[in-house]
Design a protein that fits this description.
- The chain contains eight helices and five strands.
- With about 230 residues, it is an alpha+beta fold.
Length: about 230
């Protein structure tokens, strides 16, 4: 009798797991309706850092490298697009640390995330980038003098950044970047559509098109993000 109970219990657990997984995938596909079901995870992984409402209908997926100058240059534009369209855009950060040693900064970012300081740290990292990411003379250790500006516990960062799970998520993001043919950063996708050709105005137009398509009866505020310049000074 006990054997039967054990078998039935296991069977129920397996079915519950299968149903739960199927339901989750269905919900993800519904939420990410702009992507084919089988490709949804290529754009948004469970570990992905996101900013913006879960109800947003425009997904801005960015494959980035913290040591990438162009990523830092685009950051103010992305901020303005988010601010001009509250609740409409969800930013998804994926990693493509193509520069030598750039995974070092990704590990710091992920460790900062454990302290609830991910976005503050990313902002400080971009603003201080000229001081530590010179491509002729990169000095990654210089980043540490700027990190206190994000309110971080640095001793804890040094411990958490060595978590093997961070290395695995970087590997996953790089694999997805390769599948999606991301060869340089930043690599943008708006509701699954790649930014081609690349440029500020092109990104603005792509976001604007998706805003119009998904919010046809609401005012368009995307134009407020046209000024691509920004204050990245410290």
């Amino acid at each position: 009798m006990k054997y039967v109970i054990v078998v039935v219990s296991c069977l129920v657990l397996v079915l519950a797991f299968m149903f739960g997984g199927s339901y989750y995938r269905g919900q993800q596909a519904k939420k990410l309706g702009f992507m084919a079901r089988e490709n949804a995870s290529l754009f948004v992984r469970d570990h992905s850092q996101t900013l913006g409402s879960d109800d947003a209908k425009v997904y801005l997926v960015e494959f980035m490298d913290p040591a990438c100058e162009t990523c830092a240059a685009f950051s103010p534009l992305v901020k303005r697009l988010m601010e001009a369209n509250p609740g409409r855009i969800k930013l998804v950060i994926r990693y493509a640390p193509f520069h030598d040693g750039a995974d070092y900064f990704v590990k710091i970012l992920e460790a900062a995330g454990k302290q609830g300081k991910y976005w503050q740290t990313l902002d400080i990292m971009y603003r201080s980038q000229p001081y530590w990411a010179s491509h002729s003379n990169p000095q990654p250790q210089r980043i540490w003098q700027f990190l206190p500006m994000a309110g971080l516990d640095l001793d804890q960062i040094r411990k958490d950044m060595n978590d093997p799970a961070i290395t695995k998520l970087i590997e996953q993001d790089l694999a997805d970047a390769q599948t999606l043919n991301v060869r340089k950063t930043p690599g943008f996708f708006v509701n699954g559509k790649p930014l081609q050709p690349f440029g500020y105005q092109q990104l603005l137009q792509l976001v604007q098109d998706e805003i119009k398509a998904n919010y046809p009866n609401q005012p368009d505020h995307t134009r407020t993000g046209q000024n691509s310049g920004g204050d990245n000074s410290l």
